[in-house]
Design a protein that fits this description.
single chain, 532 residues, alpha/beta, Leucine Aminopeptidase, subunit E, domain 1, 2 domains, ten-stranded mixed β-sheet, two-stranded antiparallel ribbon, 16 helices, 14% strand, PARG_cat_C
Length: 532
């Protein structure tokens, strides 16, 4: 293991420079592709299949095709597959008295017949086909349009952006021509969408057209809660997030993006879990950066999203920490909320190819939208930007149980999570594996110990033969202490298995203390007991 403390470039592997060929992309049992391949030379990818898929027979070996439009019914599942209920599903019905009618027909009628010129009219249109939202204020949306936009910006929004958003919303049956499988727990599966298809899905989220799914394992995919908030200190959070999202829509409706994005659920089966303590893998290189950000200085690397187990966290509510910020500067990430079940302890979600549309400053209550960002990231041979973001949720520790994180079961849980997040499903030579860009994962409000989390992630990266770039986000004391401990680990040629044993030994020490007895910091304990 070697150590680096340079902020700008540690010389670690970055994509595309380190990449091996991806090979040919084909639909398979673990890949669902929603666009035609090969990709066109110019313009957005065309939807796949050519004709509309409306039903799935559990005993059939292929999709049943229909020339009617739209004629989509939620598939009658096999025992293992479930699908997203779409706004235009024939079983998406609205009820007036005892009469049921197609909700999509009503949505189309309302959106096409309304000439929206004010925020009041926009809110009225959304509530027209969503009577359950009648009492919601939509005050965040109103404030953005009425108080934040200049007259020129209002005119642009109502005469250009909004009509194009409506058109993109209603084109959803044209863009999505087969059912979207839910990325279910305990499965390895990838979904491939064009950026244009994602834009249509997100437009439908904005106009609140998706039916309520009533599934506890899925996020709500309606923007309604983002549009409304009490007038308290978190009101501005939603306002600034909405600025980012509207800017994204202004960009994609005026210049349709041409790339693609993949969403890969990763599941680590019990028989794939390594015996950590017996591992002889050498610790990989680590670069500790007191300044910089994962999304900028970690370009071309596997970038950690400090996720909620419900991917996306509170992005459509009042949340605004690392995950939510990443989701509003790269809004295509939000599509994952539509079809990703809550992550289990041995799962992660890898999202490849999203485009950054927004700049920002601040964090939490100080977050501000800071204008357009034009993403220069090149694309791979499958049409995805070389931007890999992996959602990995950490454990939460209540204030009275913070010391539980040093127990073996808790250490193993975090190590399994980081391992599946950093792993490669396809065989790759280590020289072709990009480094991991991460930081204080699960610290802050989750009360994780940065010293413990940094070493857990170093072990996980080393077991996957990947270097690690660790951002401490301005914590110079942590940077100094990390550089000291990893230098000592390198000098003693400590293996990943040995470091894991050090953590377990420290856990035994912590459990031997009285509740009110002061703990020796982890780094100091390892240095004193094992490295001096």
């Amino acid at each position: 293991m070697s150590v680096c403390s340079a902020q700008s470039d540690c010389g670690f592997n970055r994509e595309p420079d380190c990449c091996a060929s991806l090979g040919e992309l084909r639909p398979s049992s673990d890949k669902t592709i929603f666009y035609q391949i090969p990709l066109p030379d110019d313009g957005p990818p065309k939807p796949y299949p050519v004709r509309f898929v409306y039903n799935w027979s559990p005993t059939a070996s292929a999709w049943v095709l229909s020339s009617t439009y739209p004629a989509f019914s939620t598939p009658s599942n096999s025992s293992t597959k479930e699908y997203v209920k779409m706004p235009f599903s024939v079983d998406n019905q609205s009820k007036q008295g005892i009469i049921e009618s197609s909700q999509w027909t009503k949505i189309v009628k309302v959106l096409t017949s309304s000439k929206i010129k004010t925020s009041t009219e926009l809110v009225a249109v959304i509530k027209d086909y969503n009577p359950s939202m009648a009492r919601m204020s939509f005050n965040v949306l109103r404030t953005l349009i009425d108080d934040c936009y200049s007259e020129v910006e209002k005119d642009l929004f109502f005469t250009s952006t909004l009509p194009k958003m409506i058109a993109l919303t209603l084109e959803l049956p044209k863009f999505i021509r087969q059912p979207i499988p839910i990325l279910k727990q305990r499965t390895n599966h990838s979904l491939f969408f064009s950026q244009q298809q994602i834009a249509s899905l997100l437009c439908n989220g904005f106009f609140c057209t998706f039916p309520e799914h009533r599934q506890a394992k899925l996020q709500d995919f309606s923007f309604a809660k983002l549009f409304s908030h009490p007038n308290d200190e978190r009101f501005t959070r939603k306002l600034e997030k909405l600025k980012c999202i509207i800017n994204y829509f202004q960009r994609v409706v005026s210049d349709p993006p041409k790339g693609v994005v993949s969403f890969e659920r990763r599941y680590l089966a019990d028989n794939e879990i390594t015996n950590w303590s017996s591992s002889n893998y050498n610790l990989k290189r680590i670069c500790v950066c007191p300044k910089g950000a994962i999304e900028t200085h970690g370009f071309g690397m596997l970038q950690a999203d400090f996720a909620n187990k419900y991917v996306g966290g509170g992005v459509l509510r009042s949340g605004l920490v690392q995950e939510e910020i990443r989701f509003v500067i790269n809004p295509e990430l939000m599509a994952s909320m539509l079809f990703t079940e809550v992550l289990l302890e041995n799962e992660a979600l890898l999202i490849t190819g999203t485009e950054q549309f927004n700049k920002y400053s601040g964090y939490g209550d100080t977050f501000l939208y800071d204008g357009n960002y034009y993403d220069p990231t090149p694309t791979d041979e499958w049409g995805r930007r070389y931007t890999k973001i992996v959602a990995m949720d950490a454990s939460y520790f209540p204030a009275d149980k913070v010391r539980n994180q040093y127990r073996k079961g808790c250490i193993d849980r975090e190590l399994i999570k980081a391992y599946v997040a950093f792993m490669e499903r396809r065989k790759l030579d280590p020289k072709n594996r990009c480094a991991v860009a991460t930081g204080n994962w699960g610290c802050g409000v989750y009360r994780g110990d940065p010293q413990l989390k940094s070493l857990i992630q170093l072990i996980a990266a080393s077991l996957n033969e990947k270097d690690l770039v660790y951002f401490t986000f301005g914590d110079f004391n942590l940077s100094t202490n990390m550089n000291k401990i990893v230098t000592s680990l390198a000098e003693k040629n400590v293996s990943a298995g040995q470091l894991y044993q050090f953590l377990l030994d420290y856990g035994s020490y912590v459990s031997s203390l009285d509740h009110d007895q002061e703990m020796e910091p982890l780094f100091d304990y390892i240095e004193r007991k094992f490295l001096s």
